[in-house]
Amino acid sequence: MVAVCERIAVIGAGSWGSVLANTLVLNGLKVRIWSRRQEQVDELNNLHTNRHYLADFEYDSRLQATTELKKVIEGATVILLVVPTKAIRMVSRQIAALLAPNDKKTVIAHASKGLELGTHKRISEIIAEEIPEDRRNGIVALSGPSHAEEVACHDLTLVTAASENQEAAKHIQKIFMNEYFRVYTNSDIIGVELGAAFKNIIALGAGALHGLGYGDDAKAALITRGLAEIARLGVALGAEPLTFIGLTGVGDLIVTCTSVHSRNWRAGDQLGRGEDLKKVVANMGMVIEGINTTKAAYELAQQEKIEMPITEAIYDVIYKGRKIKDAILELMKREGRSEEETKN
Ligand SMILES: NC(=O)C1=CN([C@@H]2O[C@H](COP(=O)(O)OP(=O)(O)OC[C@H]3O[C@@H](n4cnc5c(N)ncnc54)[C@H](O)[C@@H]3O)[C@@H](O)[C@H]2O)C=CC1
Ligand SMILES: O=C(CO)COP(=O)(O)O
């Protein structure tokens, strides 16, 4: 049983952070959520809405929002980071300054999906660098096929809490589990975080295929061959191969490549319809993690000498202005291969 007096800090009040926070409130926990914007805090506290991120949803009135980071993390047993990947380092650094040395009682968890540009680091690696080990009790990644829009209305969702520290992972499992939100644990945090980051690249491609009018065969092929190359790079980077056929691998790949809720899929769809990338990003008004992750994965693949033809094609489209149809044609005209040879 979750201790009812337990206090949780959620850092980031976008669509995912706010819905995860609301889920914890409904599970009986005391939750404070941090946003850097006062008008968003006022809206959450007074109207119990967050319209820019989730239209037509009313949050539980017990959810308390504030712009004061110190107030949010004070007395929290869990600090859950749900900001875009590019903000993780800065936010972690601010949190570290507020945590006491030699006080290892706070579990640091995150539910973000991406890799840091430049360093190519996973999110738990960034957190580990910024929050000294003596100020935390484990780092957990909460990940899996889960859209805020569906969790908000209590649709069935299954995710994974991954950590090298299984006690910390079990703690996150315990506070989140309810009749519509089921949480597994996993010790392969490398595989879980890499699957989460890389699936967004393939989702951009799946959206583009849709925007261009291609059908289900093309979508199935992209998901399958996408999974093969994600796993290839993931294993080279230290992940367990089986993790990629779990919730945070193929599970998240399926949902992100097939759901209209996915911002990555929607961005790809608009690109496929001929929209300009800058306009797509500006109009989304929410993070499209796959854009930065495509660059990070492309560079990692070069560094590790791993063949990732789909990622390379998407990189060429996003970063070199290549026409999507030309990139697809080149993929299709690649020399014939054995599926057995390319699955490794
Ligand atoms: N929306 C969803 O259904 C899911 C999202 N995720 C992941 O969760 C992470 C956050 O996603 P969303 O909540 O959807 O994003 P969002 O775009 O809806 O919200 C992001 C939030 O972070 C804040 N933010 C942006 N830049 C910041 C910065 N530099 N410093 C501090 N705060 C900043 C924004 O003001 C906003 O409150 C992403 O990595 C995403 O991939 C994971 C699973 C599901
Ligand atoms: O990670 C997600 C679903 O599991 C959310 O995907 P998007 O960021 O593309 O909306």
UniProtKB/TrEMBL annotation:
Gene3D superfamilies: N-(1-d-carboxylethyl)-l-norvaline Dehydrogenase, domain 2 (1.10.1040.10), NAD(P)-binding Rossmann-like Domain (3.40.50.720). Sn-glycerol 3-phosphate binds at residues 113, 144, 146, 199, 252, 262-264. The active site is at 199 (proton acceptor). Pathway: Membrane lipid metabolism; glycerophospholipid metabolism. It catalyses: sn-glycerol 3-phosphate + NAD(+) = dihydroxyacetone phosphate + NADH + H(+); sn-glycerol 3-phosphate + NADP(+) = dihydroxyacetone phosphate + NADPH + H(+). It comes from the Bacteria. This is Glycerol-3-phosphate dehydrogenase [NAD(P)+]. It comes from Liquorilactobacillus oeni DSM 19972. The lineage of its organism: Bacteria, Bacillati, Bacillota, Bacilli, Lactobacillales. The gene is gpsA.
